[in-house]
């Protein structure tokens, strides 16, 4: 059996308009052509789809079942046609982003929300890794973009700096270090330091204090939990522990060499695999999201090519 989608489209018109003659007007076809498509479909299925005894074109019980499946097939075909048109117009089928878990995820999610709101057809995969693991995942999976906390310029990559992210040295309110008015390097060596394991194993964390007792954890969620339990102290992203610091569950240590430092994250992509429309748009939105609060606007460089299509879909777009 070989179904013709045009037969299904004609069937839909007949059911929507209620008669063969009205379907012919809607489709700008002769009524005989409409009848031909329906008979051809019935012959292909070896079934009678219509009860032709009444004034309106009415499906038989068997025809109802067939049309329920046929309607799904038509919608799927329309979706495939739409996706094909999008990709022909420059949209990538997939886009993969790897982000360091030390950085706030909210700006990236706000950028992705624009993709959802405006029905960008590209399938996006977001992964989280830490330290050298970000680049490892990026290279292993041939990802398109990565947001790293520390970037060394390299041939074959384009990198754009993002606003700094503060790191703060903390311990639980009950930890002995939190009771001290001043903490020096030797004081830290008396206690367990908590840090994130670098899966690349190429270098030690430059912010480590070099004590004998170091516990390595896989992510900042488990590290924060360990610090809250009083197991040890460690550096944490300010955005991850802001609430706990505010309510006093954690305390910023009065470390003599400074209890804060800033990370300067970078948005990086390989120059030998140029980004498509979705990648360009996501880059612009991420940079915008890290720099501002509130709803994002389509970037000026993307706005012109978007406005016509979105307004055609009934979406209001604020310019300026």
Quick description:
It contains eleven helices and 13 strands. It is an alpha/beta fold and 320 residues long. It folds into three domains: 84 residues, Orthogonal Bundle (Arc Repressor Mutant, subunit A); 118 residues, D-Maltodextrin-Binding Protein, domain 2 (3-Layer(aba) Sandwich); 96 residues, D-Maltodextrin-Binding Protein, domain 2 (3-Layer(aba) Sandwich), CATH 3.40.190.290.
Keywords:
320 residues, alpha/beta, Arc Repressor Mutant, subunit A, D-Maltodextrin-Binding Protein, domain 2, 3 domains, five-stranded mixed beta sheet, four-stranded antiparallel beta sheet, 11 helices, 13 strands, elongated
- Placed side by side, the strands forming the largest sheet appear as 4-3-5-13-6
In round numbers, the mean pLDDT is: 84
**What is the CATH first-level class name of the largest domain?**
Alpha Beta
Distance between the termini: 55 Å
Class from secondary-structure proportions: alpha/beta
Find the CATH superfamily of the largest domain. Periplasmic binding protein-like II
The major pleated sheet works out as: 5 strands, mixed
Percent in helix = 40-55%
Helices and strands, in order, run as HHHEEHEHEHEEEHEEHEHEEEHH
- Work out the strand percent: 15-25%
Radius of gyration: 30 Å
Assembly level: single chain
How many separate helices? 11
CATH architecture of the largest domain: 3-Layer(aba) Sandwich
Low-confidence segments: 306-315
CATH topology group of the largest domain: D-Maltodextrin-Binding Protein, domain 2
Number of strands: 13
| Count of the separate structural domains | 3
């Amino acid at each position: 059996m070989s179904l013709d989608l045009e037969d299904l489209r004609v069937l839909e018109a007949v059911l929507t308009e209620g008669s063969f003659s009205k379907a012919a007007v809607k489709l700008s076809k002769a009524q005989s052509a409409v009848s031909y498509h329906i008979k051809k479909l019935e012959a292909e299925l070896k079934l009678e789809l219509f009860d032709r005894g009444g004034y309106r074109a009415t499906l038989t019980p068997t025809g109802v079942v067939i049309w329920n499946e046929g309607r799904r097939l038509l919608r799927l075909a329309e979706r495939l046609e739409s996706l094909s048109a999008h990709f022909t117009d420059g949209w990538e089928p997939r886009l993969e982003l790897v982000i360091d878990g030390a950085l706030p995820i909210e700006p990236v999610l706000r950028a992705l929300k624009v993709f959802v709101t405006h029905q960008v057809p590209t399938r996006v995969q977001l992964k989280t890794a830490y330290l050298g693991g970000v680049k490892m995942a990026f290279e292993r999976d041939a990802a398109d973009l990565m947001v790293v906390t520390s970037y060394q310029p390299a041939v074959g990559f384009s990198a754009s700096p993002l606003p700094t992210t503060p790191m703060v040295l903390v311990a639980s309110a009950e930890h002995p270090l939190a009771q001290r008015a001043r903490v020096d390097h030797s004081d830290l060596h008396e206690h367990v330091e908590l840090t994130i394991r670098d899966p690349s194993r190429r270098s030690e964390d430059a912010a480590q204090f070099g004590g004998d007792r170091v516990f390595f954890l896989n992510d900042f969620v488990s590290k924060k939990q360990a610090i809250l339990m009083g197991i040890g102290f460690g550096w944490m992203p300010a955005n991850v522990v802001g609430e706990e610091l505010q309510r006093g569950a954690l305390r910023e240590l009065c470390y003599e060499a400074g209890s804060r430092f800033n990370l300067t994250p970078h948005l990086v992509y390989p120059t030998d695999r140029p980004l498509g429309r979705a990648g360009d748009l996501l880059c612009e939105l991420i940079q915008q999201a890290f720099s501002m609060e509130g709803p994002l606007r389509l970037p000026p460089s993307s706005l012109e090519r978007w406005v016509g299509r979105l307004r055609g879909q009934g979406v209001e777009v604020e310019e300026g």
